[in-house]
Target: Ribosomal protein S18
Amino acid sequence: MDHITDILENAAKLQPLPSNKFSAGPTYERVRKGRLPKDRRFLKPTDLLPREDPFRRKRALLGPGAAESRRNDWFYQLGIDPLDEATNPRLLSYFVTDMGKMKSRAETRLTWRSQRRLTKAIRRAKMMGVMPILTKHISLY
Model:
């Protein structure tokens, strides 16, 4: 809060800059975050933000790291493409919840590539009618 009050107090004390008779209006210059612009008559909303940007945070990890996921990924270890298994509902049912939703990468522990291709395979299986859409139950043929 003191940062904002300092900016506002400094802006109030400053006199407007003398205008140049050749200029068409106030000049707008790019300014570093948290500093006052050269033309102190105008304040942008971004000038009042604290120096460290609260909106820039690291994204949380959505699953295991690359090395761990390579160790745990069945498809990667066996050299199988998950899209080739779109007609194998028994295998795909391991990666689906009881309500028919696909499990996240944090739960399946697969690599990014295998997770994306597995998701596509499950969607294909559901659209082909091989897997039920709203449940995990796989009927025996």
